[in-house]
Amino acid sequence: LIYFLIQGGAIVLVLTRKRNESIIIGDDVRVTVVDIRGDQVKIGIEAPRSVSIHREEIYRQILLENKEAALEENVALETITEAFKKEEA
Amino acid sequence: MIINTRHFGELNIRSESVISFPSGIPGFPELKRFVLIDIPNREIGFLQAIDDPGIAFAVIDPIFVCPDYQITLSEEDIYCLEKAAEDELQYLSIITIPSKVQEMTANLMAPIVINPKKMLARQVIQTNSKYQIRHRIFPDSPENDRSEKKETALRKIG
Fold first, then answer.
1. Which residues of chain B have a CB within 8 Å of the CB of A82?
2. Helix, strand or coil for residue B65?
């Protein structure tokens, strides 16, 4: 069974897999359903080492923190560096 | 090479100082080249994007924030950093600066890891980290309360 779903504006391909069945993405990524228990699914991923794999919620947290950390246009750098001077003294 | 930056003006940098981030960093995937600006006699520095004058981060060696800081790199990290056995890596935590400067935090969970030999870097996201994404650099203390007021005064003048 294959169908498409629209989620958050993106078209998502939805297909059904059983335990130990896989999906191939591109030429070198294989995603396998390892185990299913209740509402938890264990997924095995084989991918080249250059491909980063993260749990989405952690990745998003880091992404948002990076955006937050980018220096604002009007920040006074001296106030930041001064904070460290005091700590040394 | 001369680059323009919003916070540091025009910078003349040597090509050997360019740090490559082949995957960018989360949130800024298109920025693949940065330069590290050292601040004399301070624990912090700044990571400035070469291809976007407006993007810079304050960074700190996590050892300063957490003296026994230690992370485990994955095989994938070592591969991407082209780390040879003898290569010494450099770690930097990105600092988030809230409106009260004294409450700034360092991202210990996802440090920037640099291989200075190859000038290659990436932000390492650890799956099971004991470290926080927002670790207070200056924990609360009565003294800090005082310096906070001074801080605010400084900002008004600046």
1. 151, 154
2. helix
ipTM of the complex: 0.85
d(CA B153, CA B73): 42
What distance lies between CA A23 and its chain's CA centroid?
19
User: With contact defined as beta carbons under 8 Å apart, do B107 and B92 qualify?
Assistant: no
Q: Is B108 on the interface with A (CB under 8 A)?
A: no
Min Cα separation A14/chain B (Å): 26
Q: What is the DSSP letter of A1?
A: -
Among all residues of chain B, which has the CA nearest to that of A55? B127
B61-117 per-position pLDDT tens digit:
999 999 999 999 988 899 999 999 999 999 999 999 998 899 999 999 999 999 999
Q: pTM of the predicted model, to two decimals?
A: 0.82
Q: Are A27 and A48 in contact (CB under 8 A)?
A: no
Q: Strands B44-49 and B90-96, how do they pair?
A: unpaired
Helix, strand and coil in chain B, % to nearest 5: 20, 30, 50
Measured between beta carbons, the chain B residues lying within 8 angstroms of A46 are none
